[in-house]
Design brief:
Chain A: One of its GO terms (molecular function) is 2 iron, 2 sulfur cluster binding. The structure holds two protein chains of two kinds. Chain A is mostly beta strands. Chain A is built from no helices and nine strands. By secondary structure, chain B is of the alpha/beta class. In chain B, β22 and β23 form a beta hairpin. In chain B, α1 runs parallel beside α9. Bound molecules: FE2/S2 (inorganic) cluster.
Chain lengths: 117, 402
């Protein structure tokens, strides 16, 4: 069943920055772009255990803070190694000040050594 | 407007010698820039290009498998022919090509040499083969992974990040670890006093012992023991010795070839596009020394440097504007601490703690030259380091013009 979760308020977000949401498993990252759009993807990079919320957001992509792979905030696709797999994208709805996320039903591509348990 | 001329025919045969990080990225870059001819990558190991940094960390601890290590994406593989287990033994300038150990001559229109470097080893003496390991390739790491760690005495020789990563992995695996390095606080000369102290504290808090600073000289074995002998006379008993004392360019096969090798290190000398001076032959990564590295402006032996060089060679070959060099960047993982550094640390005349403490393992350190910030280092400061790098990123010329 699809449910919308309130994950944060717009005030919690800073343009160009990501916010890690740990209340869901695996954690997700919510981004407010400089252009003012809000996106949500899995927070954990698919290469290693790095938080994409700490990454660099530009042109609707987030670059992993550890290595050079970047992920599309629209599709989750990765552009170059070392990461090979995409991250899941979660649907975002804004209601007033509240940011709601509908979690993807796909299986997450977690890096080796990271489990949801 | 500068125009770029392709250094290699687009439909020609591109032969890449070395199946490592630089080889993979050179091939990938050539394809992305429109190289349509065949690309062959010869490697002396059996595996195609893999993620080497993981060998001393996640692979050594068993978290990551051989499949996980592969750089190429099995779902979107590069259009190249990988030939494994094939060592180059001779370069021919005319006709252009490479002879391999199995007697094959591989003809080429363009050659990129990316054979990397091989780990330096300590001499040994005694009655049996010593339990001494290096960490350079998958086979080395597999051998180490197969060793029982629990309760074993392990001596790690070297004070660089590779040595310290090995120390942390072996502590986590339950060994008793002693680090033998030239500095009391490893990293001080290169990264500054606070960072050297923080690194030592990080390891001491987990129970690593540090020998008095000295140079390891030899490993001696007899039937039932093994001893690491240091220059100051100290003898350290160790079931396992791990050597991380640097690497030398894998260029022995090029002695006597038309290429110019650096007299001391035997690195292949290149200009800042990777061109060797011999028509059709280019080199990048750890086997090469580019002009800006010779002058000390650029670092040698870093992952990031190999990727950038590979991209520049691929651009030069295909005639597209090369991406400009970025600030050097390197990183390490020790226990649960990620150390990242960017910029020109070697030029700094002052090191300043911006945030965090030595004991806390959470330092953010700035490197200054004449009062101007030239570098940064963070321990578990992923956000800050990424921002520092991106704000200093030099954009592609084409992108700037647009
Ligand atoms: S951890 Fe994200 S690219 Fe390596």
């Amino acid at each position: 069943m699809q449910v919308s979760l309130r994950v944060c308020s717009l005030q919690d977000l800073e343009p160009g920055e990501g916010l890690r949401i740990e209340s869901v498993t695996p954690p997700i990252a919510v981004f407010l772009t400089e252009e003012g759009t809000v996106h949500a993807v899995d927070d954990t990079c698919t290469h290693q255990d790095a938080s994409l919320a700490a990454g660099w957001v530009e042109d609707c992509r987030v670059e992993c803070p550890l290595h050079e792979s970047t992920f599309s905030l629209l599709t989750g696709e990765v552009d170059q190694p070392p990461a090979k797999k995409k991250v899941r994208v979660h649907e975002v709805q804004i209601d007033g000040d509240d940011v709601y996320v509908e979690l993807s039903q796909e299986a997450p591509n977690l890096p080796p050594g990271v489990t949801t348990a | 407007m500068t125009s770029y001329i392709a250094g290699s025919p687009t439909e020609g045969h591109l032969l890449i010698i070395g199946a490592g990080l630089a080889g993979y990225h050179a091939a990938r870059g050539a394809r992305e820039n429109g190289h349509t001819g065949p690309i062959t990558i010869l490697g002396d190991e059996s595996l195609p290009a893999y993620d080497r940094p993981a060998l001393s960390k996640a692979f050594l601890s068993g978290t990551v498998t051989v499949q996980d290590l592969a750089l190429d994406d099995p779902d979107h593989p590069l259009d190249v022919t990988w030939i494994g287990g094939s060592s180059a033994v001779e370069l021919s300038a005319s006709p252009l090509g490479v002879h391999t150990a199995d007697g094959t001559f591989h003809m080429a229109d363009t050659i990129i040499i990316v054979t990397g470097a091989q780990a330096s080893r300590l001499p040994f003496s005694g009655t049996r083969n010593p339990d001494v390991y290096v960490i350079r390739n998958v086979d080395d790491a597999m051998a180490l992974r197969g060793c029982v760690a629990e309760g074993k005495k392990v001596a790690v020789v070297g004070g660089g990040f590779l040595a310290l990563e090995a120390a942390s992995t072996w502590m986590d695996r339950g060994a008793e670890v002693t680090v033998v390095a030239g500095e009391a606080n490893p990293g001080t000369a290169r990264l500054g006093q606070p960072v050297g102290c923080a690194i030592r504290a990080l390891h001491e808090q987990r129970g690593v012992r540090f020998a008095e600073p000295s140079r390891a000289q030899e490993v001696e074995t007899d039937e039932d023991s093994q001893v690491l002998r240091l220059a100051d006379g100290t003898r350290i008993e160790a079931d396992i010795v791990i050597c991380a004392i640097g690497a030398t360019p894998s260029t022995a096969w090029l002695r006597g070839s038309a290429l110019t090798l650096e007299p001391t290190t035997a690195a292949i000398l290149c200009d800042d596009t990777g061109f060797t001076g011999v028509p059709g032959v280019w080199a990048a990564g750890d086997c090469a020394q580019w002009a800006s590295q010779a002058s000390g402006i650029r670092p040698i032996g870093h992952w990031q440097e190999a990727v950038e060089q590979a991209g520049i060679v691929a651009a030069a070959l295909t005639g597209v504007p090369p991406a400009p060099f970025q600030e050097p960047y390197f990183w390490s993982e020790q226990y649960d601490v990620r150390i990242q550094a960017a910029g020109r640390l070697a030029q700094a005349d002052q090191v300043q703690i911006l945030e965090g403490t030595i004991e806390g393992g959470d330092l953010l350190v700035s490197y200054l030259k004449d009062g101007e910030e030239v570098g940064i280092l963070g321990m578990n400061r992923l956000r800050e380091i990424k921002r520092w790098r991106k704000l200093r990123q030099i954009k592609h010329r084409a992108a700037l013009a647009a």
